[in-house]
Please model this.
Amino acid sequence: MSPKRPTETPTLFAAAGLDHDAPHPLPDRLRPRTLSEVVGQDHILGPDGALTRMLETRTLGSLVFWGPPGTGKTTVARLLADATDLHFEQISAVFSGVADLKKAFDAARARREMGKGTLLFVDEVHRFNRAQQDSFLPVMEDGTVVMVGATTENPSFELNAALLSRARVLVFRSLDAAAIEKLFAHAEAVEGKKLPLDAEARAVLVRMADGDGRASLTLAEEVWRSARADEIFNAAQLQEILQRRAPIYDKSADGHYNLISALHKSVRGSDPDAALYYLARMLDAGEDPLFLARRVVRMAVEDIGLADPQALVIANAAKDAFDFLGHPEGELAIAQAVVYLATAPKSNAVYTAFGTAMQVAKQAGSLLPPKHILNSPTKLMKSEGYGSGYEYDHDAPDAFSGQDYFPEALGRQTFYDPPERGFEREIRKRLDYWAKLRKERGDSR
Model:
């Protein structure tokens, strides 16, 4: 009788005893085994965090994790699958195409028929094109998969609205100094030795990690490899050994937010010189120019608005110019837009009006518009008075009927109050003229 075969053939490495003993990088060895071990994301994993609340029900909806590299997005997705008894399947938009997606969906359907759900983790989900993103919609809607996408880019700009409407966005924050220190302490406990750094060098190493947990552990491992017996590095020696300088500011922590706030407020304060200075600071520190371009667009709509309608056009053109030219030539277009916005007349009238309108819309509920401005495609709707009494503005004197368009239960509201600055001076004249006509024609009805 032939000897019984093993149920699983060992790999060459396992047979040689190398698979178990092979060295693993420090970030891999220290990868959290439970959600409670994840550091730096207390706002979503703490006692009152969004994910904590979801897990209390042991049910998950589809999610999008947005945050910089090394903040735990992949790890949390894997641990979520374990916590909810879902099969974890990972694909990357960098390496996957339509065929890979179809294969993953088919496998998830087969698992579902066997009573097992699937958490499909999609790394770099923003790299899928619009059609590929749309392919997720049916399997998300029917529950074939719980999709967890990870992206370093703003989902509002990079993901389809249809996909976003079916998934909740959770923001992963760059690790602060305290979180990096926790990782270093954990690494020292596992390694059984302290990092050979004086206090200043340790602080520099924290800044070098730039909020990236994986990078912090890789750097720590490099330090241990480089140190001789009983050697303690100072800050200068550390930077020389690692061949890396500490960043001018942490792109995801206080320095980042301080400088972008300074840039925005300099533009709002009509100081082009200060605005250029802070723009240069951020570019020199390695900030993503497209992030800056997006903030410039925000400044155009928030702080200039219709006081200069060209502001938004120029801000968008700067973003497109950078996309076309790239670094460093395209940065000049962003600088030009910053100067234009800083020297433009300022108005937050539309920004304020929209905020007020949103508040009223939420509070007032689903009020029916007045019947005279509703379409009446059926006899029933006509019999109910839909469209009755509507005055076509182009047939009225000055192309203005003066009718009321607000729901009757709400009454007329005023949200937009343009100032006497820039182009809005002209808009103010028009609104005042129409208000006069509305009063006259309303009184004559």
In short: Confidence is low (pLDDT under 50) at residues 1-18. The longest strand covers residues 87-92.
